[in-house]
C-alpha cells in the first residue's frame, strides 16, 4: 500500500489553555504534569492528523521547562511534525505564555516520538512528510540527529 505524503502544515495543531488554580503546583506555578498532559494531547493530534489513524506516544525527548506560567496565564501550544520514519514520527510541541498584547514567551519545548497503529494495535506505516521551508528542513535534519541519539540510548539500555 502506497501512502500519500503530506505537507508539514497539513497537520499543525494549535491549542490554547488558561492556567486555573487546579493546574498550579505548591509554588503557585503551572504544574509540569498538567503541561505534559496538554502537550502529549497536542502531539497525539498532530500525529493522528498526519497518519489519519490511531497513534501512541513512544517517547518524549528534551522536555525542557524554560520559563514559568502562573494562574490566569494563557498557554498556547503549537505542534508539528518534524520527521517520519517507517512506523513512527517525531512531533515538536512548543508552548508559550501569551500576553494580552499578543507577545509570546516560550515556556516549554518537547519532542515526541509517536507510533502509528493499525489493525490489532500493531505498528503500521506512516506517510512521509513534505518539507517546504528552510525551517522545516532544518527541523528534519535536527530530528534525524535526535533519532540517532535515541537509537544509541536504546542500544545501551538508557
Helical fraction equals 25-40%
- Label the structural class: alpha+beta
Please tally the β strands and state the result. 7
Question: What string gives the helices and strands in order?
Answer: EEHEEEEEH
Gap between N and C termini = 35 Å
Radius of gyration: 16 Å
* Domain unit count: 1
Residue stretches low in confidence (pLDDT < 50, at least 5 long) are: none
User: What fraction strand?
Assistant: 35-45%
CATH superfamily: Hotdog Thioesterase
Q: What CATH architecture would you give?
A: Roll
How would you summarize the topology of this molecule?
Blueprint: E1 6-7, E2 13-18, H1 32-51, E3 54-65, E4 74-84, E5 88-98, E6 104-117, E7 129-130, H2 134-156
Parallel strand pairs: 1-7
Antiparallel strand pairs: 2-4, 3-6, 4-5, 5-6
Structural features:
158 residues; single chain; 7 strands; 2 helices; two-stranded parallel sheet; globular; alpha+beta; 27% helix; five-stranded antiparallel sheet; Thiol Ester Dehydrase, Chain A
Task: Describe the structure in brief.
The strands form two sheets. Strands 2-4-5-6-3 form a five-stranded antiparallel β-sheet.
Write up what this structure looks like.
The chain is α+β, with helices and mostly antiparallel strands and 158 residues long. Helix content is 27%, strand content 37%. It has a single domain, classed as Hotdog Thioesterase (Thiol Ester Dehydrase, Chain A), CATH 3.10.129. The chain has helices at 32-51, 134-156; strands at residues 6-7, 13-18, 54-65, 74-84, 88-98, 104-117, 129-130. The mean pLDDT is 95.
Amino acid at each position: 500500500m502506497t501512502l500519500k505524503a503530506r505537507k508539514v502544515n497539513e497537520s499543525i495543531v494549535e491549542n490554547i489553555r488558561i492556567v486555573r488554580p487546579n493546574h498550579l503546583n505548591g509554588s503557585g506555578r503551572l504544574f509540569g504534569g498538567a503541561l505534559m498532559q496538554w502537550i502529549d494531547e497536542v502531539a497525539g493530534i498532530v500525529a493522528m492528523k498526519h497518519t489519519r489513524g490511531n497513534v501512541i506516544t513512544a517517547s518524549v525527548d528534551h522536555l525542557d521547562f524554560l520559563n514559568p506560567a502562573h494562574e490566569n496565564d494563557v498557554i498556547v501550544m503549537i505542534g508539528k511534525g518534524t520527521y517520519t520514519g517507517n512506523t513512527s514520527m517525531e512531533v515538536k510541541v512548543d508552548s508559550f505564555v501569551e500576553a494580552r498584547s499578543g507577545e509570546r514567551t516560550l515556556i516549554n519545548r518537547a519532542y515526541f516520538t509517536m507510533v502509528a497503529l493499525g489493525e490489532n494495535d500493531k505498528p503500521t506505516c506512516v506517510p512521509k512528510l513534505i518539507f517546504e521551508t528552510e525551517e522545516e528542513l532544518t527541523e528534519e535534519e535536527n530530528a534525524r540527529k535526535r533519532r540517532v541519539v535515541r537509537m544509541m540510548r536504546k542500544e545501551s539500555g538508557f
